[in-house]
Design brief:
mainly alpha, five-stranded mixed sheet, 22 helices, 63% helix
Amino acid sequence: MNLDTLKEMPKERKLFYIFLVVHFIIWTSVGLLRAVLPADSLEGIYWGSLLDLGNPKHPPLAGWITYFVYHIFKSDFSIYCLSQLFVIGGFIYTYKLAKCFLDENKAILSVVLLEGCWIYSYVTGYYGFNPDVFLLLALPAITYYFYKCMQDNRASDWIILGVLVGLSCLDKYQTILLVIPMAIWAGIFRPQVYKNKLFYIAFSIATLIFLPHLLWLIKYDFLPLLYYDGELHRINGFNHFTSPMSYLGMQIVCIIGTLAIYGFYRIIFDRKFEFAKDYDKEKFWFLILLSFFSLVIHSLIGIICGSDIRPRWGYVFWYMLGIMLFYFFPSKIDKDSFKFIFKSSYAVMLIIFISMGTMLAVEKNYRSRYPVAKTWGILQNIWAKEYKTPLKYIGGDSEWSFPVSIYADSHPINIMDTYGYKNPWIDEEDLKKNGAIIIDKWDEGVKYAAIKAAPYLNLKFDEIELKEFYLTVQNAIKFPKEERGYTVYYYIIPPIK
C-alpha cells in the first residue's frame, strides 16, 4: 500500500485499520501482567514439543504452532502476539464476508461491534493461544471462501477452502459444526455443487491434510474422545434442564457487550427495531444455519444427555453476530451513528481492559503468578539432600509442572502421562537411571502420577508416602503485601542404577 493509496482511502476504512491496531496493542499487552503463560499456552508448548500427530485432548496443529513460535522467539510476548494475530486475521475475514451482505460502513461496524464479545478480548487476553483462538481465524475464513465458492465457483477459492477446512479440522474437531451446516445449505440452495469436480478436489485436499491425524486416532483408539467424554460425563436428572439453560445463558453473557452497543445505537439514534422485509432467502438461511447450528447441537447434547456443556465451545461461532444484526434489522448509518458505535466499542474495550488488568495485577493465583524460581529452588534443594546428580525429570499436574519445565534455567524434562503413547524425548532407561520428582497441590494427583510415571516400582496407592512444602504467591503490584499460600505435595521417584 503506497502513500497515495492511503490518502485516497475512505476515512471509515482508515478508522477500521486503526481499530485493528489498537485492539492488537491492548490485548497483546495485558497478558504481560502475568508471571507465566496461561495454562492452555503452556500445555500447547508441551504437546507441540512432542511433535506427534495428536494428543489426549485435541488434534495437533495448535500445539505445533504454539511450540514452534515459543521455541523460535523464546518469550511469552510472542504467544500473546500470536493470539492477537489470529484474532485480527479473523476480524479481517469477517469484514470481507460482511461486504458480501452489507455496504462498506456496515461491514466495518459489524466487526467493530465484536469488541463487545469477550471471546475476542477477555478470553484471548487471559488464556493466550489455544485451539479456540485458531478457530477465531479459521471459521470466518472458511465461511468467506465457502460463500465465494458458491457464488463464483473459482478453482482457487475451492483449493483454499479445502486447505482451510483440513487445517481447521487438524486444530479442533468442532470445525465439523461449521462444515455440516455448509453442506446442508449447499444441498438446499446449490445442489449442483455435489456434481462439481472442484467440490471433490477441495474435499480430497481437506481429507489428505486430516488423514495423518485420523490414522493416529485409529492407532490410539480415538484417545481424545475420552477427554470429551470426561468433559460431558457429569450426568444427573436435573442437568437435562439446567445444562442447556446454563450454556445458553453464558452465550448471552459472551455477546452482551455487542448487543448493548447495538441496542444503545438503535435507541439513541431513534432506529426502530424492524425485521427486514425484503431479505434474500439464500443469504438469510446462510447466516442462520452457519451461525446457530452449533448452538442447537450443543443445547441438544445437554438436553438429551444431561451433560454439562462448556460455554466456550459456542463462543467461537459468534463471528457473524454483527453481520446478522445489520442484515436482519436494517437501519441507516450516518456519520454520527458511525462514530457512536466506534466510540462505544472503544469504551467497552477500555472497561474490559481495566477490569482484566486490575484482576491480573492484584490476584494471588498460581495460574498467573506462579513463582517458578522459588519453586525450582525448593525442588532442587529437596533433591540435593538425597542425591548428588542434578534433577533432570519432573512430573505431576500440568499447571504445576509445566511452568517449571518451560521457565526453569535447566529446563527439566516433563514426564506428564501421555496416556499410552510414547513421549519421544524420554528414554525410559534414562528416566529410571535419573529419577524424578512428581508435584501437585492435590495429594491424590501426585500418587496417580507417580504410579503411571514409574510402573516398574509397583507402587501401591494407599502405601505411597508423600511429603509437602508450602509455597507463597504474591500479586503483580505487591500491594497489599498479603501472600497466598499453597501446600504442594511431592513424591520422589528414586534413581535406579
